Amino acid sequence: MSGLILGIESSCDETAASVVQGGKRILSSVVHSQVEEHAAFGGVVPEIAGRSHLREVHRVIEQALAEAEVDPDQLEAVAVTVQPGLIGSLLVGLSAAKGFALRHNLPIVPVHHIHAHVWAATMELAPDDDPFPAVALVVSGGHTALYLAKGPTEFEPIAQTLDDAAGEAFDKVAWILGLPYPGGPSLSKLAESGAADAFRFPRYRPKTLPNSKDLGLPRPLGFSFSGLKTAVLYHVRGQDALAPTPAPEDIPRRADVAASFQEAVVDALVTQTIEAAKRAGLERVFVAGGVACNGRLREKMGAAAADAGMTAVFPSPAYCSDNAAMIAGLGWPLWESGKVGDMTLDASPR
Ligand code: KG4
Ligand code: ZN
Questions:
Q1: Under a CB-based contact definition with an 8 Å cutoff, are residues 46 and 86 in contact?
Q2: R_g (Cα) of the chain, nearest Å
């Protein structure tokens, strides 16, 4: 058994392919980012995304095989993201995977994008280190949720955002501050020169239900970032939220606003995650998804986990945002446990 899996990812605005051996050893990871194609629109345009995947997917697959120096006949299976994501984009990757599998007589392994993000955090652990159970925080442009991860695909939801995802909040606040798309990286860069305690923006905490203390129920866990985003909007534009966006150089203390906003997001993510791990009695948290690239989140989560006698595990930055190594990686335990699909496989946006 070669343990070699080809992974294909196309759920949003990255066309990616990768070859991973035994779930962990990354032989290649090719990512074609569409950022420039969507930048003018300030967000991902599904129609443009689908067409771009179609143009790039075969080249990206060929490149991943060539860089890994692997021939299709050495592969055990093709793993592909089937949910969640933009349906038109998912279908391009799935169709490419089906074509490849048919041509080379390989099984197809359907992969859940969120589970794969978490798998990315486990890939750098020592081979004999069993990653599960652990608490997993998935923070990306489309998701912000906490799970009790009991196995590679056994995820029990603990809490999620009531409104915006954390990455979405970064992108929107970056836009309010006149920063280039995508907002997360540009805002966190600006925040490096600002003071995190310059402004006290709101941190959402879910309300305790009446009587819950008497009933011995713990405070609920959860996230919300739309109030924070609105607070920044009013801070920047004054009480007239519909006022035109000031030119970036006219926004007073822009770096301080960025750093204070980032701090509020990071605080919310860190407190809720550590609390969830305490309640679950677990000593390890995995943090995954595009926002896991954020330096301040890595720093504060690491410190809070250490204070609580826990460890926070992040993927290397290249494997936080969308990539196919996480798909090929998770494909291995799925393939080993017989979770293969066939030509009738379908994609789902949810
Ligand atoms: O996981 P991902 O690549 O795509 C989704 O599945 O959504 O995450 C993209 C999100 C974007 O919202 C982007 O702004 C955010 O991750 N992001 C960051 C950073 N790098 C990327 N947010 C905060 N700080 C960063 N350094
Ligand atoms: Zn993602």
A1: yes
A2: 21
Residue ranges around ligand 1 (CB below 6 Å): 12, 140-142, 167-168, 170-171, 182-185, 188, 289-291, 293-294, 321-322
In this structure, the answer to whether residues 68 and 215 fall within a common structural domain is no
Q: Considering the domain boundaries, does residue 11 fall inside one? A: yes
DSSP characters for 31-65?
EEE-HHHHHTTTS--HHHHHHHHHHHHHHHHHHHH
Residue 350 lies in a domain: no
In a domain, 347, yes or no: no
Domain hosting 138: range is: 134-314
Q: Is residue 75 part of a domain?
A: yes
Residue 142 CA: which ligand 1 atom is closest?
A: 7
**CATH code where residue 24 lies:** 3.30.420.40
Helical H runs in 150-242? Answer: 166-176, 183-191, 226-237
Which tokens in the block code for residue 331?
A: 């494909």
Q: Are 166 and 138 in contact (CB under 8 A)?
A: no
Note whether 180 and 238 are same-domain residues.
yes
pTM: 0.93
How many whole angstroms from 322 Cα to the centroid of ligand 2? 5
24 alpha carbon, distance to own chain's centre = 18
- 295-344 residue pLDDT tens: 999 999 999 999 999 999 999 999 999 999 999 999 999 999 999 998 99
What's the total number of domains in the chain? 2
Co-location of 260 and 325 in the same domain: no
Q: Is the distance from CB of 89 to CB of 46 less than 8 angstroms?
A: yes
